[in-house]
Amino acid sequence: MPEDSINHINFEELNEKAISTPLVSHIYTADPSAHVFNGRIYIYPSHDIDSDVAFDDLGSQFAMEDYHVFSMDRPESEVIDHGCALHINDVPWASKQMWAPDAAEKDGKYYLFFPANNHEGIFQIGVAISDKPEGPFIAEPNPIEGSFSIDPAVFRDDDGKYYLYFGGLWGGQLQRWRTGAFKAEREGPLAHLPADDEKALTPKVVLLSKDLLQFADQVKDVVILDEDGNPLLAGDNDRRFFEAAWMHKYNGKYYFSYSTGDTHYLCYAIGDNPYGPFTYAGRILEPVVGWTSHHSIAEFEDKWYLFYHDSSLSKGVTHLRCVKMAEIQYDDNGKIITLEPYKGIKILD
User: Fold this and answer.
1) What are the φ/ψ torsions at residue 309 (nearest 5 degrees)?
2) Alpha-carbon gap, residue 205 to 108, rounded angstroms
3) pLDDT beneath 50: ranges in the chain
4) Residue range 155-209, pLDDT digits in tens
5) Is 243 a catalytic residue?
């Protein structure tokens, strides 16, 4: 969202017409991954902090350094901050930028998956383990072997297999892995992006090992198709993947959802198995105040909820965001009914 657009927003009116209010207001939170563990809602967001890091296309201003876990009995109840669950100082391989995490449960253990820059400035994905869903978590000494890029999201299928979805453009470095090996920034941070008429870069998916600590197979492309069955093109900015992969299952179908990044939409595509391909199906959420959207979707007591963020709490400061939630509904054809985050107010035309 252009900075000059923020200057024209009446935040008092915006907040009055918002479909939801910040779940957390004492710190800045973003990128919420929500799960129901033991009948309780747990939210695993990133923790935005104010910093003097200059804004750039790599997201350097998002200088997060720890994670807090939040929980609540039900959607309308008090949100509990369980404190710092993991700090970058306790992750031997990581140097900075602990961005959007996710969590999973298996056999009474809880696993926090998180991206961070290693000491060479390359994003990888790590795992930390706890006996409790709120942590604290103890990080594995090394990142997952073969991992790269950002935004890990874990999906447990009905057969008990766990899959990891991940990837993010620009600062998420996905474009720098196009050849299978990391390319440096000598030609500029965005030099390795495909041309508009080429196939869009895809998010990635991989089966996790039984202990959830390693990849159990080769990383595969998550291909998103248009209505004619063709892969989306890189120039299709309103529909192509940018970051924030998420998977959920509804009525036997696999719903892969994601953010379009610089065009600020939350979109989704539907497939018949966890690997795809997935056919583009529409938008979940129209643009919010802030540079981009990042979300999760979870079911609680037979209702479905979207967890997302905007920058309303900081009045438009794009790297200081707040987590929100809103109920979503499906039509008779299984399509998600698009939400407008602020009734009657469009952030982008």
Assistant:
1) -140, 160
2) 24
3) 1-4
4) 999 999 999 999 999 999 999 999 888 987 666 667 899 999 999 999 999 999 9
5) yes
User: Collapsing DSSP states into helix, strand and coil, what is residue 103?
Assistant: strand
Establish if 146 belongs to a structural domain.
yes
* The residue type at 39: G
What one-character DSSP code corresponds to residue 66? E
Catalytic residue among 48, 134, 151, 243: 243
Total domain count, the chain: 1
Q: What is the CATH number of the domain that holds 136?
A: 2.115.10.20
Q: How many of the other CB atoms lie within 10 Å of CB of 179?
A: 8
Is residue 145 domain-resident?
Answer: yes
Residue 176: phi, psi to the nearest 5?
A: -85, 0
**Position 342 in a domain:** no
Gyration radius of the chain over CA positions:
19
- CB-based contact 223:276 (threshold 8 Å): yes
Annotated catalytic residue within 31, 102, 134, 286: 31
Q: Which domain holds residue 321?
A: 3-328
Task: Say if 210 falls within a structural domain.
Answer: yes
What digits encode the pLDDT tens for the residues 23-63? 999 999 999 999 999 999 999 999 998 876 666 556 666 67
Q: In the annotation, is 31 catalytic?
A: yes
